[in-house]
């Protein structure tokens, strides 16, 4: 199965039952509703980035599913501390994968 993250973030939730079924997991409405309640995710809390329960500080401040940005040049937040070479390589990969 091939599924883009953008497809999972669409408000329709149309892809979640298919994905859960493919993974042989329960796909009830209750499960999907809990998946969509991002503020309840265990990774939506405090923690050191890159560690268990650590995550995106912007998401943690306002945990919610947001629509994906419109296609365009891939950019990386400077606050992540990535090197220019790493940004260049990830940008090239994103372009190759058509993001």
Structure description:
The structure is a single chain. By secondary structure, the chain is mainly alpha-helical. The protein has a domain at 69-99. The protein has helices at residues 5-8, 15-22, 29-36, 57-61, 84-96. The protein starts with a helix and ends with a helix.
What are the salient characteristics of this protein?
5 helices; 99 residues; mainly alpha
Task: Estimate the helix proportion, in percent.
Answer: 25-40%
The count of DSSP E runs of length 2 or more, i.e. the number of strands, is: 0
Please tell me how large the radius of gyration is: 16 Å
Quaternary: single chain
Question: In angstroms, what separates the terminal alpha carbons?
Answer: 18 Å
Instruction: Characterize the biggest β-sheet.
Output: none
**Elements, N to C (H/E):** HHHHH
Strand content: under 5%
Q: What structural category arises from helix and sheet content?
A: mainly alpha
The helix count comes to 5
**Low-confidence region ranges:** none
Judging from the principal axes of the Cα atoms, what is the shape? globular
Mean pLDDT: 79
């Amino acid at each position: 199965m091939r599924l883009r993250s953008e497809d999972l973030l669409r408000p329709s939730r149309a892809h979640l039952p298919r994905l859960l079924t493919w993974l042989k997991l329960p796909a009830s409405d209750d499960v999907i509703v809990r998946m969509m309640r991002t503020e309840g995710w265990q990774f939506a809390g405090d923690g050191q980035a890159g560690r268990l329960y650590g995550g995106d500080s912007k998401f943690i401040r306002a945990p919610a599913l947001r629509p994906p940005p419109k296609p365009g040049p891939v950019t990386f937040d400077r606050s992540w501390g990535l090197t220019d070479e790493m940004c260049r390589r990830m940008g090239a990969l994103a372009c190759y994968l058509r993001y």
